[in-house]
C-alpha cells in the first residue's frame, strides 16, 4: 500500500517526520502520545500526586521587561518576536534545561518546516546523528550513501554545518540543515580521530539497505543487518532460513554501523534464539516500581550446536544494542568488535497545541541483567579495533576474528 504526503494530516506528517529523524527512524523506540497535558501558568502549580512545585518567575519577568524596553535590532532583517513566539522560546529553553538531547519542543515554525520538507522532494547524505559528550555526533553512516562514500565514520563530531556552528544545536535542527534537494551539497566541519577537516557532500535520494547474506568459503554464514525497519523481521527470517538450508552451524550477525530502529523488530529477531518469556530488554521508567520487561516470543529454533558471533562497533545503536545485549547475556553469542554507541532511551510525542508538540524521553533501556545501555553502551566480549592500515588493505580484522573464534 502506498501513500502520498498530501493525503496526511499535520499530526500524521509530524509523527512520520519524528520517526524518520535519527534517532528516531532508527532510534530506540518512539511511542506516540494522544493526550495533552495542561498545567496552570501560575507561579505555584500542583504536579502529579498533588505535590506542590514552586517557581520563582521574577527573573523571567524582569528579563522580559528589560528586553521589551531596551532591545534594539542590529540588523534590518531581524524582527521583534511576538508575545506568542516568546512563549515558544521560553518553552524551548525549559525543555533544553533538562539536558537531554532527545527531549525537544516543536514550535509551529519547526513543525511547519518539517511538514514542508516531507511534502517536497528532499535528499540527504545517509547519516544517522545523535548527541554524545554534549556534541553533535555521527552515529553511523548508512551503507552505500554519500556520507559513507565521503569518509564519515561512526563517532565523528560535527562541528559546523555549512556556516552554522553546532554547539547547542538539537538533532532535529541539524537534520533540517543537512537535508536538502538532491544534487545540492552540504559542507560539514568534522573532528575525526583528533583532526578537524571540512567535507563537502553531494545530497542524493537515500535508499536505506536492510540486509545482506553471504556464505563464506570457510563455512561461516554471515548476515549483515543495516537497520531495524518494519520489514526487517521478515527479511531476517528469510536469512535464517537460508542459513539453516546451508547445513552449517557457524553464524556471524554483523550489526556494525546499524543505528537501530523499531523495538518490535529487535524483539522478534531475538526470539529466534531464546525460549519463551526470556527477557530481551527492560524498559525503565525512572522508578523502581516502574519497569517493564519485554520478553521473547519463543521461536527458539536453534539448539546448543549453534556457534554464533555478533559484530558491533561505535555505530551500533538502539535496537542493535538491545539485540546484541540480549544474545550476549543469555550466552547465545560472543560479541566482537568495539564498544557500541550507547543510545538506549524511549521518547513519547505529546500534543501541546494543535500545531505544537513535545518529544520527551520517558524511559531508558536496560539489558536483561539490568545494565544501562544509555549510560554505558554495550562492551564486546572480545575487543578488536579497526585500524587505518586494515581499512587501506580492505582487510576486515573484526570479521576475521569472529570467524577464528567460531572455528575453534
Can you tell me about this structure?
With 408 residues, this protein is an alpha/beta fold. Among the domains are: 124-202, Pdz3 Domain, CATH 2.30.42; 211-344 and 364-406, 2-enoyl-CoA Hydratase, Chain A, domain 1. 29% of the residues lie in helices and 26% in strands. It has helices spanning 10-20, 22-25, 58-70, 83-96, 108-119, 146-149, 171-178, 232-245, 263-271, 319-329, 373-376, 388-392, 397-406; strands at 30-32, 44-46, 52-54, 104-106, 127-132, 135-141, 157-161, 164-165, 185-192, 195-202, 211-215, 221-225, 250-254, 279-284, 291-295, 307-312, 334-337, 345-353, 356-366, 382-383. Strands 1, 4, 14, 15, 18 and 19 form a six-stranded mixed β-sheet that branches. Helix 8 links the parallel strand 12 and strand 13. The radius of gyration is 23 Å and the shape is globular. It starts with 9 loop residues before the first helix and ends with a helix.
Key words describing this protein structure:
single chain; 408 residues; alpha/beta; 2-enoyl-CoA Hydratase, Chain A, domain 1; six-stranded mixed β-sheet; 13 helices; 29% helix; disordered N terminus
Can you tell me the CATH superfamily of the domain at 211-344 and 364-406? 2-enoyl-CoA Hydratase, Chain A, domain 1
Q: End-to-end distance, in Å?
A: 48 Å
Q: Give a short account of the largest sheet.
A: 6 strands, mixed
- Portion in helices: 25-40%
Task: Compile the SSE list and pairings.
Elements (H helix, E strand, L loop, with lengths): L9 H11 L1 H4 L4 E3 L11 E3 L5 E3 L3 H13 L12 H14 L7 E3 L1 H12 L7 E6 L2 E7 L4 H4 L7 E5 L2 E2 L5 H8 L6 E8 L2 E8 L8 E5 L5 E5 L6 H14 L4 E5 L8 H9 L7 E6 L6 E5 L11 E6 L6 H11 L4 E4 L7 E9 L2 E11 L6 H4 L5 E2 L4 H5 L4 H10 L2
Parallel strand pairs: 1-18, 12-13, 13-16, 16-17, 17-20
Antiparallel strand pairs: 2-3, 4-19, 5-6, 7-8, 7-9, 9-10, 11-12, 14-15, 14-19, 18-19
Helix pairs in contact: 1-5, 8-9, 9-10
Amino acid at each position: 500500500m502506498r501513500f502520498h504526503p498530501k493525503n496526511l494530516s499535520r499530526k500524521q506528517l509530524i509523527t512520520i517526520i519524528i520517526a524518520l529523524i535519527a534517532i528516531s527512524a532508527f532510534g530506540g523506540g518512539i511511542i506516540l502520545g494522544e493526550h495533552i497535558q495542561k498545567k496552570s501558568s501560575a507561579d505555584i502549580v500542583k504536579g502529579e500526586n498533588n505535590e506542590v512545585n514552586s517557581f520563582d518567575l521574577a527573573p523571567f519577568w524582569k528579563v522580559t521587561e528589560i528586553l521589551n524596553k531596551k532591545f534594539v535590532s542590529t540588523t534590518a532583517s531581524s524582527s521583534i518576536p511576538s508575545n506568542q513566539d516568546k512563549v515558544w522560546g521560553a518553552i524551548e529553553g525549559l525543555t533544553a534545561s533538562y539536558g537531554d538531547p532527545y527531549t525537544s519542543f516543536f514550535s509551529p515554525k519547526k513543525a511547519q518546516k518539517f511538514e514542508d520538507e516531507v511534502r517536497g522532494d528532499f535528499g540527504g547524505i545517509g547519516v544517522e546523528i545523535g548527541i554524545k559528550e554534549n556534541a553533535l555526533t555521527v552515529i553511523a553512516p548508512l551503507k552505500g550513501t554519500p556520507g559513507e562514500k565521503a569518509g564519515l565514520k561512526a563517532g565523528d563530531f560535527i562541528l559546523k554545518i555549512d556556516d552554522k556552528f553546532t554547539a547547542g544545536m538539537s538533532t532535529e535542527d541539524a537534520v533540517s540543515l543537512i537535508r536538502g534537494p538532491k544534487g545540492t551539497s552540504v559542507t560539514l566541519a568534522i573532528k575525526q580521530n583528533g583532526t578537524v577537516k571540512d567535507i563537502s557532500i553531494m545530497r542524493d535520494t537515500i535508499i536505506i539497505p536492510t540486509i545482506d547474506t553471504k556464505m563464506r568459503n570457510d563455512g561461516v554464514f554471515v548476515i549483515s543487518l543495516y537497520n531495524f525497519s518494519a520489514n526487517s523481521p521478515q527479511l531476517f527470517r528469510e536469512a535464517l532460513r537460508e542459513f539453516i538450508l546451508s547445513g552449517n552451524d557457524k553464524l556471524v550477525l554483523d550489526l556494525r554501523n546499524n543505528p537501530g530502529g523499531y523495538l518490535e523488530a529487535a524483539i522478534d529477531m531475538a526470539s529466534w534464539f531464546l525460549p519463551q518469556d526470556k527477557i530481551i530488554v527492560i524498559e525503565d521508567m525512572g522508578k523502581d516500581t516502574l519497569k517493564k520487561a519485554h520478553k521473547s516470543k519463543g521461536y527458539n529454533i536453534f539448539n546448543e550446536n549453534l556457534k554464533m558471533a555478533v559484530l558491533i562497533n561505535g555505530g551500533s545503536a538502539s535496537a542493535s544494542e538491545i539485540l546484541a545485549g540480549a544474545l550476549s547475556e543469555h550466552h547465545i553469542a560472543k560479541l566482537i568488535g568495539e564498544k557500541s554507541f550507547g543510545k538506549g532511551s524511549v521518547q513519547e510525542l505529546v500534543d501541546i497545541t494543535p500545531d505544537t508538540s513535545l518529544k520527551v524521553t520517558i524511559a531508558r533501556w536496560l539489558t536483561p541483567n539490568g545494565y544501562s545501555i544509555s549510560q554505558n553502551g554495550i562492551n564486546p566480549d572480545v575487543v578488536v579495533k579497526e585500524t587505518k592500515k586494515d581499512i587501506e588493505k580492505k582487510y576486515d580484522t573484526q570479521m576475521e576474528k569472529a570467524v577464528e573464534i567460531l572455528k575453534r
